[in-house]
Amino acid sequence: MKDIVITDPQILLDLVNELILCTFTFKNIRTMGSRSEAERFHSSGRFKKQSLQKCDIIKKGLLTADQVISILIHLSIIAPVGINSEGEEEYFLPCVLVHAPVSVLASTVAPGYSPLLITFKCGYTPRGVFSCLISSILCSREGQWVLASDKIYRNQVMFHLTEYGHYVLLKNCIKYLQVTITVCHGSTISDVPFPKIQEFLSQHLLIVITKLRYSAHKVGHSFGFHCTLEDHATSDPHIAQCIISIQNPHIKCTIGPSPMTASLTLEQAIWFKVSSKGQDKTNYSNTLRTSFDITHLSMVLRFLTKEHYDATTWQQLGLALGIYQPTLNKIESDARGKTEDCLRVCLSSWLRQEDNVKESGIPNWYTLAKALDSIGQRSIADLAYVKH
Ligand SMILES: [Zn+2]
């Protein structure tokens, strides 16, 4: 893959276009081998590698089907979804899917929890985020989120949590994403790992927003709920933001007739490791404390060595992590320029949160991934994101 340089991205756009077109005209099969194959692609966005053979870019020999698949996976345009009933590997291309009919969208919500809403600073779901989120989830190494059925829509996807048996419905409501849960047969709402689901989605949103090169400052996501504040009951349905601070997690609504704040209801607090009155603080702060300290040095070094990080770029990495240049200069002269030593001391400074590290982002997999990404070490960055 590293040997491929794509000078004209148009060929990739053409390929995706060609795939999309064959779902519109699936009755006069162009690319697909058979009608059932074409219909499966049309209804659930799933296709096989050999379906790519008839695409122009591969017929012309510009890229092989394997290369195309690796590139599209890397760009989160497609995701591998496992083996079909005939034992063939399938891939998922969310952007070919059709919108869910209105009747399908109207589902009832089980009592005991409030649907979680994911909002974005820009005020709407940024372009590409929903389909990339689905691909990112399906590509995740945990593999415990799988597509629940063949009924997949462009704006609505049901996942099956294989570990627990529950179902998670993700819906793109244009202005926000909505997360609803269906409890598996024989379980109750208290068996659902709500905070885990929320954290999992949050992690993948961070990955996707970074991958799509959106600025987290402009489009970053946050959580909210349909506003249920009493004084706001008469106005149009709207979203109240959830402010997740350790001291005082609460709901803040600025949209109704009079802006107001309130503590989380039990149905809302269930998504976070915090009680409705904020008493159970220990649990919650533990989840925030996933940051690294100096005891993580050998783990971080092992990771970088294993993934063939180019240690000669240690200064750039240090700067990206928030270490100042004078500190880096001192590290270099102290270590007499020995690259491995420089990297080790530089990472130690990062883990001890020296210089500007606190402001650049406390040490964890995410900040490491972001720094690696910013200095062009993309493939290692992706691996670090996955760990995050
Ligand atoms: Zn309100």
Automatic annotation (TrEMBL):
Which SUPFAM superfamilies does this chain map to? DEATH domain (SSF47986)
**GO biological process: one example:** signal transduction
The protein's matches in PROSITE patterns, at most eight in alphabetical order, are given as: DEATH_DOMAIN
Xref: Gene3D superfamilies? Death Domain, Fas
Stored InterPro entries: DEATH-like_dom_sf (IPR011029), Death_dom (IPR000488)
Q: Which residues form the Death domain?
A: 314-382
Question: Which residues are the signal sequence here?
Answer: none
Name it.
Answer: Death domain-containing protein
